């Protein structure tokens, strides 16, 4: 699990290095957002593995639903981090900043 998180973080950091025209705040926020998304994905994967291992169908559905919520909430939290960074630099880089609507 930690190897997956480490590998995912490394890929996102390399992608961030290749990006041009971003402010320091945007780059830092992107790294933070990527970490939030990676953690949410790892937690969701763990819940889905638990769901697959349970013989109880109701519990399986509940775990899968919880995994979906965890991943969705992590994505929203990551979007908020990126949105706040876009606003922090005076709107210079908000053309590609996701909205939290």
Q: Average pLDDT across residues?
A: 81
Distance between the termini: 31 Å
Low-confidence stretches: none
Beta percentage is under 5%
The secondary-structure element order is HHH
Cα-atom radius of gyration: 16 Å
Overall form: elongated
Main beta sheet strand tally, sense and closure? none
Can you count the helices?
A: 3
Blueprint of the fold:
Blueprint: H1 2-18, H2 24-53, H3 57-88
Helix pairs in contact: 1-2, 2-3
Can you give a write-up of this model?
It is a single chain. By secondary structure, the protein is mainly alpha-helical. The chain is built from three helices and no strands. The protein has helices at about 1-20, 25-55, 55-90. Helix 1 packs antiparallel against helix 2 (about 25-55). The longest helix is centred in the last third of the chain and has 32 residues, at about 55-90. The two termini are about 30 Å apart. The model has no long low-confidence stretch (mean pLDDT about 80).
Structure summary:
The protein is mainly alpha-helical and 101 residues long.
Q: Keyphrases for this structure?
A:
single chain; 101 residues; elongated
């Amino acid at each position: 699990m930690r190897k997956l998180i480490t590998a995912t973080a490394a890929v996102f950091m390399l992608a961030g290095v290749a990006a041009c025209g971003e402010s320091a705040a945007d780059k830092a926020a992107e790294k933070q957002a990527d970490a939030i998304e990676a953690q949410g994905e790892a937690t969701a994967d763990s819940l889905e593995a638990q769901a697959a291992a349970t013989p109880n169908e109701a519990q399986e559905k509940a775990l899968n639903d919880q995994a979906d919520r965890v991943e969705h909430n992590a994505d929203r939290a990551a979007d908020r981090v990126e949105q706040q960074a876009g606003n922090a630099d005076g709107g210079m880089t908000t053309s590609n900043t996701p909205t939290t609507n």
